[in-house]
Amino acid sequence: MSSQDIPEENLPVEQDHAHGAVKVADEENPFADPGLPPHEHRIQDIDERAAKRSERTVALLFTVSMLATVGFIASYVTIDVDQSVYVFPIGHISGLNFALGLTLGLALFTIGAGAVHWARTLMSDVEVADERHAIEATPEVKAKVLADFKQGAKESALGRRKLIRNTMFGALALFPLSGVMLLRDLGPLPGTKLRHTTWAKGKKLVNMNTGEPLRPSDVVVGSLTFAKPDGLEEHDHDFQKNIAKDALMIVRIQPGDIKDKQELDWSYQGIVAFSKICTHVGCPISLYEQQTHHVLCPCHQSTFDLADGGRVIFGPAGHALPQLQITVGEDGYLEAVGDFQEPVGPAFWERG
């Protein structure tokens, strides 16, 4: 069906939006304004059935966007992060990443495609020419802009095309849920995990370098030894997570040089065990000055006195290094009396 087949009174009304256009060149205006080409009506402008088809197409695209968003959420929840799929010609890739990318891309694309199809087939396509004007708008211009906006809103048929309106609102309302689901990567609430380590009563102190349990004779005055709990191996799945809290510094100090009574009580013949994790931002401490018994964090130069309860004597650290109470077991090896009595590492907001 063409515009020639439609009675003149049924065709959309054309408005002349040109202002002061010069059709013929003369001495005062040597360049003629060719004006806008004749407007051709679209099939949707003259056939309501075609308009309905376009409306259903746009609604379908918005609905697909909603379904893709639901698929994104379902993929995020159900697909294991370690699962892989084969995609030709790429090869094996992460199944979770593939599903998330596919559904998120589809959700975005169909929202955009629906908006473009709506604009090209159902909104007014009449080109409007207007004269340039000063940056500061006059009251008349403001009134005209407001009138044009109202006219554009009316021509968009948002109120009349309820199917498009409702599906668009549905797609736009569901899509942000994809971002909300990403909050899952923040992980579960820590609970009391930050307050405890794997140290427990009877756990042997194992040399980090040799992998052998430590005897008192293995720790000499002036030496610095790093230890981990017995049973914690580097090939364990959660090794890095645990060693970040379990790592110990073992030093031997003459009992008479220990200034803190609790430190002396928790030591064994001058052998003391302190957390290796700096209480500032969690860096591993590794620099030991044997004459003063000070240890230095290489990240921000927090300095702790291992002869005085691990207290802070310099730097940004907020509290002393936690000490692990140790003793010697029946087999002659150094072992823990229990877990740390306070959380290791940096402070956190709910720490009492």
Automatic annotation (TrEMBL):
It is a multi-pass membrane protein. InterPro entries: QcrA_N, Rieske_2Fe-2S, Rieske_2Fe-2S_sf, Rieske_Fe-S_prot, Rieske_Fe-S_prot_C. The keyword Lyase does not apply. Its cofactor is [2Fe-2S] cluster. It is found in: Cell membrane. Residues 1-39 are annotated as: Disordered. The keyword Kinase does not apply. It comes from the Bacteria. CDD domains: Rieske (cd03467). The chain crosses the membrane at residues 58-79, 99-119, 163-183. SUPFAM superfamilies: ISP domain (SSF50022). Signal peptide: none annotated. Pfam families: QcrA_N, Rieske. Residues 240-335 form the Rieske domain. Keywords: 2Fe-2S, Cell membrane, Disulfide bond, Electron transport, Iron, Iron-sulfur, Membrane, Metal-binding, Oxidoreductase, Respiratory chain, Transmembrane, Transmembrane helix, Transport. Belongs to the Rieske iron-sulfur protein family. Iron-sulfur subunit of the cytochrome bc1 complex, an essential component of the respiratory electron transport chain required for ATP synthesis. The bc1 complex catalyzes the oxidation of menaquinol and the reduction of cytochrome c in the respiratory chain. The bc1 complex operates through a Q-cycle mechanism that couples electron transfer to generation of the proton gradient that drives ATP synthesis. This is Cytochrome bc1 complex Rieske iron-sulfur subunit. The lineage of its organism: Bacteria, Bacillati, Actinomycetota, Actinomycetes, Kitasatosporales.
